[in-house]
Write a structure and sequence with these properties.
Blueprint (H helix, E strand, L loop, with lengths): L18 H18 L13 E2 H14 L2 H16 L17 H13 L9 H15 L9 H13 L20 H8 L3 H12 L6 H24 L10 H13 L24 H17 L6 E2 L12 H15 L3 H12 L27 H11 L7 H12 L23 H13 L7 H11 L17 H13 L6 H12 L18 H13 L3 H14 L12 E4 L3 E3 L2 H17 L26
Antiparallel strand pairs: 1-2, 3-4
Helix pairs in contact: 1-22, 2-3, 2-4, 2-10, 4-5, 4-6, 6-8, 8-9, 8-10, 10-11, 12-13, 12-14, 12-22, 14-15, 14-16, 16-17, 16-18, 18-19, 18-20, 20-21, 20-22, 21-22
């Protein structure tokens, strides 16, 4: 499955056919590709481009804390970084992505600290100079709006001697000393990067006696927290199944000077504790992290974004989108999809995750090991609902979902009732949760659904749209709410009408959708989502225009190019998901096929009006 770098329309042998025939051909091509690439287990391999931040983070960690052989891996990672540098001097999140501050700072730090095999080679120095020039032209690190991201970029540059750390706002490491329930609310899933930044900052000395005292008291608890995260996610050495985050934590531990470099007999850092005996917890975490990074390096010397918990990548979310789409395309009872549902059921977590106060019964993106969360669990539950409604995994998952509802009626991602804005509450997740529960047979009059819907409808923006935490722009959450309201028979309510108007206004002249900003080109992911909502609300003409764009952009092998629509760090780091895009596009074309009788209204003035009876929930 290749990933071209453009979104140009493709020529098709069926271009001369009418729309129903073209839709049928596109659905056949897409389903054929997905079924042909399914693994014997029922899963799929989700192709991902290599990650700049992941490669730079792994290279830093392996150089600072690893063996001689590890440093060779670090050099290979830096060689890859030089090959994928953007013409403007910066780096993007993934190879070929537009330059961003996080990736550029990480790459510049790695190229500065990791020696080149040929000291006379000036390529790394030239690249670092270009990176700093790009940052300067972008306003410098000071122009980064998010405080945590600004801290990250500043501290990484300071570690490499490319910037100063004295102006960086203090990371309040003492938060790790809070009682567990309160710590969960204020740190949530951000505990590993929070601790890593606090440790990195400590390398440059805490400002003032109170800060130094807080650090001395909190450091053991911070390291314990890292160990608890690593253990609870499967004890495979990673943090979040992500080479970037794992590399950042290992780099932070190693650069404070408390962890001896393997085989060197001396400290790997230059901090105040240089030459001291390695602390057992630090050393164990670093050793396990290095093992994970060694196991996940790619043949070209790079590391993937969110590799997962296993050496062989296991991923749940993208395959779930693919399976759900195949189900809507008529394959729900096919033995190959039955096998997929069995595999997904086997990925259900059977043990609690105490750090999130999370009971068993949910799913994560990386197979049976990892951080349980509502977003990925919903993707799986949608697939399981296409099979046996009494299946134990489905019933446990639905009970788990109800147990994760916030007191306010919403759903967050990782931690209930969180105070962390990046965790929740989330209108997109809440709308998806309510739709899953409704389709599972929970009546709309159930107090839990009533409370959730009340919270959700109050989150509509003034322009009529809704916003998601983990997907960019206005389309995903607005679509999720519209599909929910259609299923509830409320597609003509004032909230739905305003949301539908916002969605129609966001459609680009070529028929596609993007962020809602007309300066951004359309993507398969966002266009497919919008088509699904319009089809559910009975707007056949609007859905058909979007479907035509999808048809034009389907590649000869039946696939589509994914857009940079998924969020890793909001407003700063986005990524693409191949299987998610395939699933969304296939689902959208299947929905339009089901509305084929509505695609050519006799009276063009009726093209944008919802049809009678639409919004009953029959069309997804």
């Amino acid at each position: 499955m290749s990933l071209p770098l453009n979104q140009q329309p493709h020529d098709h042998p069926h271009d001369g056919l009418d729309r129903p025939a073209r839709l049928e051909g596109a659905v056949v091509a897409s389903t054929g590709l997905l079924l042909a690439t399914q693994l014997p287990t029922g899963a799929w391999t989700n192709p991902r481009p290599a990650a700049v931040s992941g490669t730079a983070g792994a290279a830093l960690a392996l150089h600072l804390a690893g063996t001689g052989a590890d440093r060779a891996l670090a050099e290979g990672g830096c060689a890859w970084l030089l090959r994928v540098r953007n013409p403007d001097g910066g780096w993007g999140t993934l190879e070929g992505f537009p330059s961003d501050a996080v990736a550029t700072c990480m790459a510049a730090a790695a190229l500065t600290l990791v020696p080149r095999p040929d000291p006379g080679d000036g390529a790394a120095r030239e690249a670092v100079s270009g990176a700093l020039a790009w940052l300067g032209a972008a306003g410098g690190v000071e122009a980064v709006s998010d405080r945590t991201v600004r801290q990250l970029c500043s501290l990484v540059l300071a570690l490499a001697g490319l910037g100063a750390a004295d102006g960086v706002s203090r990371v309040p490491v003492e938060l790790v000393l809070l009682p567990a329930a309160l710590r969960r609310k204020v740190l949530s899933y951000l505990s590993p990067p929070f601790v890593a930044l606090a440790l990195l900052q400590s390398r440059f000395g805490a400002p003032g006696p109170l800060a130094r005292g807080a650090l001395a008291v909190a450091r053991p608890a911070a390291v314990w927290l890292l160990g608890a995260v690593q253990y609870q996610e499967g004890d495979v050495g990673s943090f979040g199944g992500d080479p970037w985050l794992t590399g950042l934590v290992v780099t932070a531990l190693a650069s404070t000077g408390s962890v001896a470099s393997p085989g060197s007999g001396t400290s790997s850092g230059s901090g105040t504790s240089s030459g001291s005996v390695a602390e057992p917890d630090d050393a164990r975490l670093v050793a396990a992290g290095l093992d994970y990074l060694r196991a996940t390096v790619q043949p070209d010397g790079s590391w993937c974004m969110i590799h997962g918990m296993e050496t062989a990548r296991v991923e749940v979310t993208g395959p779930a989108f693919a399976a759900a789409a195949l189900g809507t395309a008529g394959f729900a009872d096919d033995p190959r999809l039955v096998r997929t549902r069995t595999w997904l059921a086997d990925c259900q977590q059977t043990a609690p995750f105490p750090l999130y106060d999370c009971p068993p019964g949910g799913w994560t993106w990386s197979g049976p090991k990892g951080w349980p969360n509502v977003l990925d669990s919903l993707a799986v539950l949608e697939v399981l609902l296409q099979g046996d409604r009494d299946a134990p995994a489905l019933r446990r998952g639905l009970d788990w979902l109800l147990a994760r509802q916030d007191r306010r009626g919403s759903w967050s991602t990782f931690v209930r009732n969180t105070l962390v804005p990046l965790d929740g509450p989330c209108p997109y997740i809440t709308a998806k949760a309510l739709l899953v529960l409704h389709e599972a047979g929970v009546p709309a009059s159930d107090p839990r659904l009533v409370r959730g819907l009340r919270w959700l409808l109050r989150r509509q923006d003034r322009d009529g749209g809704f916003r998601a935490l983990w997907h960019r722009g206005v389309v995903p959450a607005t679509v999720a709410v519209l599909r929910l309201l259609a299923a509830l028979g409320r597609s003509r309510s004032p909230v739905a009408r305003r949301a539908l108007d916002r969605l129609r206004a966001a459609q680009l002249p070529d028929g596609s959708w993007s962020t809602g900003d007309r300066g951004e080109p359309g993507t398969v992911d966002e266009t497919a989502r919008a088509v699904l909502a319009l089809a559910a609300c009975g707007d056949g003409a609007g859905a058909a225009r979007g479907a035509d764009w999808l048809l034009e952009h389907q590649r000869p092998d039946g696939s589509w190019e994914p857009g940079r629509t998924c969020v890793y760090i909001r407003d700063h780091v986005h990524y693409s998901d191949f299987l998610m895009a395939q699933g969304l596009a296939l689902s959208a074309l299947s929905a339009v096929s089901a509305l084929s009788a509505l695609l050519a209204p006799a009276d063009p003035s009726e093209a944008s009006a919802p049809v009678a009876g639409a919004g009953t929930g029959d069309a997804r």
